Amino acid sequence: MTVDADRLRALVDAPVVHRESVPSTNDLARAEGRDGAAHGTFVVADEQSAGRGRTGNAWASPPGGVWSSTLVYPDFDASHVGRLTFAGGLAAAETVEAFGADAALKWPNDVVVGADARKLCGVLTEAVVDEVPVAGKPVDEVLPGTDPADADLSFAVLGVGVNAALDPSDLDVDREVTTLRAVDQRETAERASGGERPASSAEVGEVDATEVAATLHERLLAWVERVETDDGFADALAAWRERSATLGERVRVETRDGETVVGTASGVTSRGALVVDTADGDVTVTEGECSRLRRA
Asked: Are strands 289-292 and 110-113 parallel, antiparallel or unpaired?
């Protein structure tokens, strides 16, 4: 089941741009921003042919998922762009929980479920700062010599992909993933094994992608508004830490520069970086692939 664009427009109080197929909803949303589209403009596609993750990895986006990007004009300067990744992760986690998934947040931008931390959602924040797209990293790392407090944050795009009304086998990826449909099917089987009434065929695996999209959009805008203030962002950090599947765990982070950081994840900074307690002291990592290590 793909998103019903007409019904989504009736559910969402913002412009909706729907396409059957696009290379990337983030790219389309960024073009909408350059054309002056309104805050909250919601770009949704049935499939993406070139979806991407935070470090540029391909993101499988076949029909049945909710592949979306939301255009926002947050009321803060470029130094606070990292707040949006927390907002996106929390919104995605709350969304999938509304549809039966027990969600946790894996640094930097994944929503995962289960003891084996199977990926259910991904978040990609892309800001446009001084007319330059900035994806995933602090502004002054992408634009050396730039003071983020003085840079012009034109707008930002919050890309969120939710594995919704499809099966894990539909996703051509090299990692452990799951979907809302699979979560629903598992819970149905568990209820049946516990002696509860067997579910009807209409109840098994029927995930309404349109409802998922509408819920996601509502939660995104609520969290974006909340993190605009210092107190609201403090609440977001506390909520993120409470849901974290990373903090307190032994981790290995492989950075894009080829560095490997191994230690215990001890915190996150206000810019979204992970603090890792290593044998040589604390290391702050702004980007990378993070994996949990088995404890000895």
From this structure: unpaired
3 state SS for 4-26:
CHHHHHHHCCCCEEEEEEECCHH
Instruction: Output DSSP code: residue 168.
Output: G
Q: Residue 41 and residue 20: Cα distance in Å, rounded? A: 17
Q: How many CB atoms lie within 10 A of CB 150?
A: 10
The backbone torsions φ and ψ at residue 45, rounded to the nearest 5 degrees and listed phi first, read -130, 150
pLDDT digits (tens, 9 = 90+) for 74-105: 998 888 888 998 999 999 999 999 999 999 99
Residues 273 and 283: their CA atoms lie apart, in Å, by 10
Instruction: Report the candidate in 23, 151, 157, 163 with the shortest Cα–Cα distance to residue 84.
Output: 157
Per the CB < 8 A criterion, the answer to whether 279 and 238 are in contact is no
- How far apart, in whole angstroms, are the C-alpha atoms of residue 103 and residue 113? 5
Per residue in 106-137, pLDDT (tens digit) is: 998 899 998 888 999 999 999 888 677 776 55
Selection from 290, 289, 268 nearest residue 85 by Cα: 268
DSSP 274: E
Global model pTM greater than 0.85: yes
| Other residues' Cβ atoms within 10 Å of the Cβ of residue 156 | 27
Q: Please, where are the H alpha helices in the chain?
A: 5-11, 25-34, 83-98, 139-142, 180-193, 209-226, 230-243
Amino acid identity for residue 11 in this structure: L
Which residues is 172 bridged to in the sheet? none
| Length of the chain as a residue count | 296
- Rounded Cα–Cα distance for residues 18 and 41 (Å): 11
